[in-house]
Amino acid sequence: MTPGARVAAAADILDAIRDGQAAEQALTTWARGSRFAGSKDRAAVRDHVYDALRARRSLGDGSGRALMINLAKRDGRDVAALFTGEGHAPAALDDAERAALSSAMRLLDAQSCDIPDWLWPIWQQSLGDDARLAARVQQHRADVFLRVNGRRTSTADAISALAEDQITVQQHPEIVGCLRVLTNPRRVKLAAAYLDGRVELQDASSQFAISKLRVPAGGRVLDYCAGGGGKALGIADQFDAQVFAHDIAPQRMADLSTRAARAGVDVPQIATDDLVRTAPFDLVFCDAPCSGSGTWRRTPDAKWRLTQARLDSLQGMQADVIAAGAKLVRPGGVLAYATCSVLAVENDAIVDAFCARHPTWQRRARHQLLPGENGDGFYLCLLENT
Question: How far apart are CA 38 and CA 291, in angstroms?
């Protein structure tokens, strides 16, 4: 595909998303109907779509074609060379489009920061002076990070092994065993170091959270909302402990056994009905369902799909999760409440309300990471039952 053809395909996919399709669904539908597109073409089209979604409002919030015109302008590309009308490229610019290109859009704060109007006050209240910076960081792609599996290899050996597959990395400035991928991130899952369990894909913020946990030697840990099990695997790698995983939707953990075997750890899965019988645990890690507002660089369509009603519903789930997790902690144990959100209503507000209802529980540590060059946004609060 020519560069123009890729732009045309991205514009069509963006129109399908605007009509209500989820981004992944729209991309999959296009790929299945475009067998001529090679892997590099599919990757380029995907990048175009996600780049436009990350900055949808600041790019004018228009049609797929309009978004791609403004994205090309923002990124300093030759718009006229992409919009030629030749072959499979999109039609040449009309007079109105050329005039719009030569003028600057006037945007309000919420628009320039690519935050929905209804969410902007909540965003500002949560982030204060960091509100604009945290929003604008998410207008661009996030880096890919890897976790070195210390049970399989050393950081130095992992770096060397990745280099053999033309993947260059650098060590995170603050987190031991955390590697930022500098080149060829799409090759990671084909690399020998990944296939044999020496490295695992995991954002730096999650690795940071794991590093802040306190687990006694031989202790018992429950990853209560495990999902794919990445944090359970990280905990099992870092601590000498028995680590268990649970999720209310067990199908989310379908790949966990395979991943655990590859990593050389054992992470038994516990059904919901068996939780009370298997408790208590020294640490219960509750990574609650949330808006994902700290990770919108990776899932930008989630930002545009979030509504006030959905946010209210999530807060109800979060209150249920922290209360349920607390019941599984042994006396003197630790409850870790976490989200990948930067919104106070999902973080401190949930913890404050829980502590008000359960006064024997006290905060022991609190961490709020904002999205930036060293990882996604993430919230972690460690509580102890005194």
Answer: 34
